[in-house]
Amino acid sequence: LGTSIKGALFPSISADIISTDDQMLKKNYHYYSQSLNFLIIPLAFIIILFAKDIIFLWTGDHFTSIKITPVVTLLTIGSLFNCLTMIEYSYVFVYERIKFLFYINLICALLSLPILYFLVIDLGLLSAGIYWVFLNLCQWLILKLYFHNNLMKKVFFKNILYDILMPILISRAI
Q1: Cα–Cα distance between 119 and 131 in angstroms, integer?
Q2: Is 151 helix (H, G, I), strand (E, B) or coil?
Q3: What is the distance in angstroms between the CA of the first residue and the CA of the last residue of the chain?
């Protein structure tokens, strides 16, 4: 879902960056972030809170749903962080900071294979979920800090408060 939304917004993000109106660029950035987050965060919360029931409905096996619920929960949290990076990722891409994105993804790919191999062998499937959360959390933090320090200054706290925390709080209230 996040990738589809990012794909739909990408032409608008490109047009915003080409324009010279910084106020409109910031306004649209928050609008795109909020739009994605208000769709993704509640869905992730539903999956996290009802993972066992969803897995049971899917598999029909109570034992399987109990065993893999922690893994599905961790994979959902990691995927949520991945979705939270999509708008910033698009802006960084359109700003032609490809080298930065390339190095982040290269480092993650080179580290992922050996880490996952040894974690899963030693600690089992749950460690793959833990690593997925850690990997996407790190990418989210790095990309968000890079984006707000280099490309979209003075909107970091507004982004955290209105574009991330507000959807989280509304999702929790529902």
Answers
A1: 8
A2: coil
A3: 21
Which residues lie closer than 8 Å to 101 by C-beta, 6 or more apart?
Answer: 89, 92, 93
Return left, alpha or beta for 96; rule: phi > 0 is left, psi -120 to 50 is alpha, else beta. left
- Compute the CA torsion angle 15, 83, 134, 107 (nearest 10 deg): -40
d(CA 148, CA 138): 15
Count CB atoms within 10 A of the CB of residue 107: 13
* Residue 48 to residue 73: CA distance in whole angstroms: 5
168: CB partners within 8 A, 6+ apart: 41
Q: Retrieve residue 106's tokens.
A: 């290269």
Q: Look at residue 77 and give its three-state secondary structure.
A: helix
Taking only the tens place, the pLDDT of each residue in 52-109 is: 999 999 999 999 999 999 999 999 999 999 998 888 888 888 888 889 889 988 988 8
> Which tokens is 153 given?
């200054």
Contact 4, 36 (CB under 8 A): no
Tokens for 173? 């209230």
Q: Residues 6 or more apart from 7 whose CB is under 8 A from it?
A: none
